[in-house]
Amino acid sequence: MYMPASFKVEDRSAMLDFIDRWSFGVLMTLKAGVLEVNQVPFILDRENNRLYGHLARQNDQWKELDGADETRVLFQGPHAYVSPDWYESAGMVPTWNFMSVEVRGRSELLPPERLPWLLEQLSDKHEAAFDEPWKMSKVPPARLEAMMKAIVGFSIDIETLNGKFKLSQNRNPQDRAGVIAGLLTQPDENSRLIAQRMQLLQKD
After folding, report:
1. What is the pLDDT of residues 23-75, one digit of tens each?
2. Which of 28, 43, 44, 155 is the most exposed place for a label (fewest CB within 10 A)?
3. Could you tell me the CA-to-CA distances from 151 to 20, 31, 56, 62, 170 in Å, in that order?
4. Which InterPro entries match (predicted)?
5. What residues are paired with 72 via a beta bridge?
6. Are 96 and 188 in contact (CB under 8 A)?
7. 8 A C-beta contact, residue 65 and residue 108
8. Whole-angstrom Cα distance, residue 84 to residue 187?
């Protein structure tokens, strides 16, 4: 990942918080010269420094996870177009502000008996926002067993974290203020989220 010093994230805890919030990642594996890429919902286990996910058994990428030459996951958060008209400085050009974290690590398959735990962790995390969270116990055992046979679980031991938060840190305070103001006029949630993160940086 191209990493200008201005945008590099050094705070490991902040990167893990980001992964936990933006947990739908892009899984990339390289094995015997073959690159496989798929999008996967992940669960972060901070205590054991691991990521957990699953793939459809029909998805051949799972066969690459054990003994992969490289395994990486890219987590992407909010991103937004930045108009040069928002800068106080003249002669600027358009750019894009964004936030992402790359994980590199060693991947391995999970034994089938770990799948119920993995799926329960995943559903509990995302159902927590609802008044009446759905529970796996609602699925008939025979149906659940059949579904388990159709997926493969895996884990990734996190060895390296690379965070890149491009939030106009390389611009002067006046230009950053202009970008924040411009982003807050936009109708999309991504622009507002980027503006909010930039405001937090201003306070730091």
Report:
1. 999 999 999 999 999 999 999 999 999 999 999 999 999 999 999 999 999 99
2. 28
3. 22, 21, 4, 9, 45
4. Split_barrel_FMN-bd, TR_PAI2-type
5. 28, 104
6. no
7. yes
8. 18
| Residue 103 tokens, joined | 């994980």
Extract the tokens encoding 156.
């990734």
- Give Dmax (Cα) for the chain: 66
Question: Can you give the pTM of this predicted structure?
Answer: 0.94
* CA distances, 173 to each of 86, 101, 167, 202 (Å): 12, 25, 12, 8
Q: Delineate the domains of the chain, giving CATH numbers in brackets.
A: 5-196 (2.30.110.10)
φ, ψ of residue 34 in degrees (nearest 5): -105, 125
Is 155:91 a contact under the CB 8 Å cutoff?
A: no
Contact 97, 86 (CB under 8 A): no
Q: Which of 177, 184, 168 is nearest to 88 (CA)?
A: 177
Cα gap 60→42, rounded to integer Å: 18
**Overall size of the chain counted in residues:** 204
Q: Is 151 helix (H, G, I), strand (E, B) or coil?
A: strand
- Token digits of residue 30: 């390289």
100-136 pLDDT, tens digit per residue, is 999 999 999 999 999 999 999 999 999 999 999 999 8
> Whole-angstrom Cα distance, residue 187 to residue 49?
37
